């Protein structure tokens, strides 16, 4: 264990990979590892990158890595895939788009497949983020492949969220309708080389002006092209100024505190679930189940008595 912790702290790629597999598979040494590294975390800037498939998130990450590397920063990338095994192809594509950096030891790229994980994607994601943080990655980029729940979870795991959009697909309407727009701190309109991107920029800026959310005024809309690299320097500039603004206004600390609260809650949830599973699986409920089947008793009454028993046991 000490060796693994030392490996992580010194930024050893193999140790980092091994540790991430450990949290991904919920291995037995996971908790000890996370306890050990806790005092090394809290230095990274965590940037969530979300938006519809095909918007150019992975391509954009590829150019962001380049820019951050020019500044001498270590960059960690986690691609989060909560969906089916069939998206393996998409992740492979992501890897290809980021492979310019595959030989650079200051760039760490990993996709997290966390299907069926107790506690969902969020627990494994936040654990993996901590490992990269402890390993000294100044910038951590989180990319979601899916939409929906994964997007909410990426917001919770990040200091800053980039919402990547492309004009011309009716995204504006979709985004406004679904309320997804609220999750972005910076709106990135990508593929600005290709289509009428300024129109979407105007639409979003107009929307932000009208928004009752008082923080909406501080949100920026940036045009980029991950193909030509245009706009990427202004994007980095906006990321920095938003981060500094969040820090000054205490927003960053609020987000981190919320994250800690939710983490404790998730840990407790998974513990309780585990304890319920142990009680339930370790026992033969045949007679109770038969009674329920024969309408002698109802499932709520049985669940109540099991729950009472668990509470008593935890008190002793
Ligand atoms: N023209 C143009 N194409 C882009 C740009 N960014 C990404 N693409 C292309 O859009 C497709 C999807 O990109 P990808 O990064 O995989 O999108 P993701 O699903 O959001 O990660 C790929 O074929 C990219 O080459 C851009 O700025 N301009
Ligand atoms: Mg992608």
Describe this structure in words.
The protein is of the alpha/beta class and 316 residues long. 54% of the residues lie in helices and 13% in strands. Strand 2 (75-81), helix 5 (88-98) and strand 3 form a beta-alpha-beta unit. The protein is globular and about 70 Å long. Residues 84-90 have low confidence and may be disordered. The structure holds guanosine-5'-diphosphate and magnesium ion.
Question: In terms of structural class, how would the helical and strand content be classed?
Answer: alpha/beta
Count of alpha/pi helices: 13
Query: How many individual β-strands?
Result: 7
Largest sheet: 7 strands, parallel
Distance between the termini: 32 Å
Biggest sheet, spatial arrangement of strands: 3-2-4-1-5-6-7
Approximately what portion of the residues adopt beta-strand conformation? 5-15%
* Proportion in helices: 40-55%
Total discrete domains: 2
Bound compounds, each kind once, are: guanosine-5'-diphosphate, magnesium ion
Spans of at least 5 consecutive residues with low confidence:
84-90
Assigned CATH class of the largest domain: Alpha Beta
* Gyration radius, rounded: 22 Å
Give the SSE string.
HHHEHEHEHEHEHEHEHHHH
Give the CATH topology of the largest domain.
Rossmann fold
Shape estimate: globular
What is the name of the CATH architecture of the largest domain?
Answer: 3-Layer(aba) Sandwich
Mean pLDDT score: 84
What would CATH call the homologous superfamily of the largest domain?
Answer: P-loop containing nucleotide triphosphate hydrolases
């Amino acid at each position: 264990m000490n060796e693994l912790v030392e490996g992580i702290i010194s930024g050893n790629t193999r140790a980092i990979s091994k540790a991430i597999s450990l949290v991904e598979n919920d291995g037995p040494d996971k908790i000890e590892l996370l306890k050990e590294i806790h005092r090394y975390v809290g230095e990274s800037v965590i940037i969530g990158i979300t938006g519809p498939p095909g918007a150019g998130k992975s391509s954009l990450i590829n150019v962001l890595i380049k820019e951050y590397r020019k500044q001498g920063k270590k960059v960690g990338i986690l691609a989060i895939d909560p969906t089916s095994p069939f998206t393996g192809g998409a992740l492979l594509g992501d890897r290809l788009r980021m492979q310019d950096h595959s030989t650079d030891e200051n760039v760490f790229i990993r996709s997290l497949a966390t299907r069926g994980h107790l506690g969902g994607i969020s627990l494994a994601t936040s654990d993996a983020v901590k490992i990269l943080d402890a390993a000294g990655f100044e910038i951590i980029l989180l990319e979601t492949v899916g939409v929906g729940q994964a997007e909410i979870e990426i917001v919770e795991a990040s200091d800053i969220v980039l919402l990547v959009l492309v004009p011309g697909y009716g995204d504006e309407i979709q985004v406004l309708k679904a309320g997804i727009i609220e999750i972005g701190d910076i709106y990135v309109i990508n593929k600005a080389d290709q289509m009428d991107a300024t129109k979407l920029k105007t639409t979003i800026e107009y929307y932000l002006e009208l928004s009752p959310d008082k923080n909406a005024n501080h949100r920026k809309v940036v045009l980029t092209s991950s193909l030509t690299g245009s706009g990427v320097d202004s994007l980095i500039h906006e990321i920095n100024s938003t981060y500094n603004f969040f820090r000054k206004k205490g927003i960053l600390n609020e987000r981190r505190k919320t994250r800690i609260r939710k983490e404790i809650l998730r840990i407790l949830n998974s513990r309780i679930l585990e304890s319920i599973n142990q009680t339930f699986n370790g026992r033969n409920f045949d007679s109770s189940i038969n009674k329920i089947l024969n309408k002698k008793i109802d499932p709520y009454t049985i669940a109540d008595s099991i729950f009472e028993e668990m509470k008593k046991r935890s008190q002793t």
